[in-house]
Design goal:
alpha/beta; 4-stranded parallel β-sheet; 3-stranded antiparallel β-sheet; 17 helices; 7 strands; binds adenosine-3'-5'-diphosphate; EC 2.8.2.-
Amino acid sequence: MASPTMDLDISSLPLETRCPPFRLRQCGGFWLPETSLPGIAAVHASFAPRPEDILLASFPKSGTTWLKALAFATLHRADHPPRAADHPLRRLNPHGCVKFLELDLGLPAQDPKGGASGVLATHLPYSLLGRRITAEDSGCRIVYICRDPKDAFVSSWLFTKKNMDMAAAMDAANNDSPPSKATKALCTLQEAFELFCDGRSFYGPQWHHVVGYWQESRRNPHKVLFLRYEEMLQDPVSNLKKLAEFMGCPFSAEEEAAGAVRDIVELCSLDTLRNMEVNRNGAQLLARNDGFFRKGVAGDWRNHMTSAMAARLDRIVQDQLQGSDFTF
Ligand code: A3P
């Protein structure tokens, strides 16, 4: 399987330009944004995880922002009690608290360890994380969040639509060229759906992304914790306790009695985060902060896809996952 290295000739990889605003390159069986390939190569070449590091992994639009907030608030609850008025999550978007491994290593003058946070995030598929991270003896642990592909697809299309102008400008800047026609024009939902079904989406195919982490979580449950967005919505408290335990900082009985779990769930809820000033008006590199908080429900695909589209995607996913013991 091809994997990016420092001397990889990116221009030789298969190119997909129909998923604006990003040009995608096929690498190791996945369609990755061209702009992240140097960062991936840098991760492989120089990122050495510390045993205590936690890596939050996800396919885009699957609950990454929420997981970042929950993990950060949980790991740092001693220094930053969730009710504190100056809690970092009240000043910073969750993406400002927890950085993306491949993006931040790809940028100059960034701390590749994500500061003192001890937690980083990635959209990379498991097979492209690199041996330093996946090796049993690296100690570093991985939390994956999985979401129904139909909701991830719809969320992604709406997010791109909202942030098209900013992302296209960055893509053009990275490619050292004015935005091309392809990167300026958002395709229709139907066109994006065809590409998604073909696995040609940002970090797609989604189902292979999910199953890579699923299989590793089965093989090595101490290394990879597999969470489901839909289950987290249904029972955030149990899932947060599971997350804390996995990260090595379980809630004590005293903390639970004092309401620490409930407070973190509340601090990281969609409504609380969405209403913070920083998330109403701020922006990240690629997107306005308010775009990260939309409906936050399971099954919103029904408002955007026909049942024929849904049945088709379900069939594709089912066929592709045959032989694995995974179901959405
Ligand atoms: P919808 O677009 O379906 O509403 P990501 O963080 O990976 O980009 O995923 C974005 C999705 O997670 C969006 O889904 C967004 O609304 C939802 N989301 C963001 N913050 C959330 C939170 N605190 N709780 C639940 N869902 C959240």
